[in-house]
User: What shape does this take?
Amino acid sequence: MPEGMNIEIAHKLAEPETGPGKTARAELLEIGEALLLALIAVATAWSGYQAARWDGQQSLRYGTSARLRVEAAIAATEGGQQRLLDVVTFNTWMQAKESKDEKLAAIFQRRFSPEYRRAFDAWLKSEPFGKPDATPHPTLMAEYHNNLLEQSAALNKEATTAFSEGTEAREISERYVRSTVLLATVLFLVALAQRFKIRKVRVGLLLVSAALLIYVLVNVATYPRL
Assistant: This one.
């Protein structure tokens, strides 16, 4: 057998196998990598979008809470002033009654606020001057309501709820941000896997990437959405 033919046969035997099976596995591996990259891109974009929207929701709810606190403070101030005016007017009415000046007492009586007037009428019906155990002041009557003070309490309650919702929105946004970081880790692992020529190492890294991606996608699916 000629020497040149022996060398040619040796080269053929030394070449790696490139059969149809190996080519198919390589193609499947590339398809798997492409699918992973596509899922990572979509999941990253979605997580970033949701994080931005929940950040906006946080700012909106915190702003609403601050506005409601201001409105509550204004209502509380006006309500306190109204109550003080009614109490001062009542004290002056009492002085007029003690002085037997019914005309002056009637003038001050007409100056009561509508809310205070209802409690005052109920207080008079309880015969406060003839019963030692009668309610000493109309503001202590069950009929007394100060709409401004009640409005202030309701606004404060709404402000607390809005602030809690803002805090919850911030926490949800942080979850989406953490998911984005994990997705960046998955992307790094996929890119790292593509650098290896050893098939087992490459496949192992892709499997780890796929498992981590599934974990992130399951978590993201459970998060609230806007």
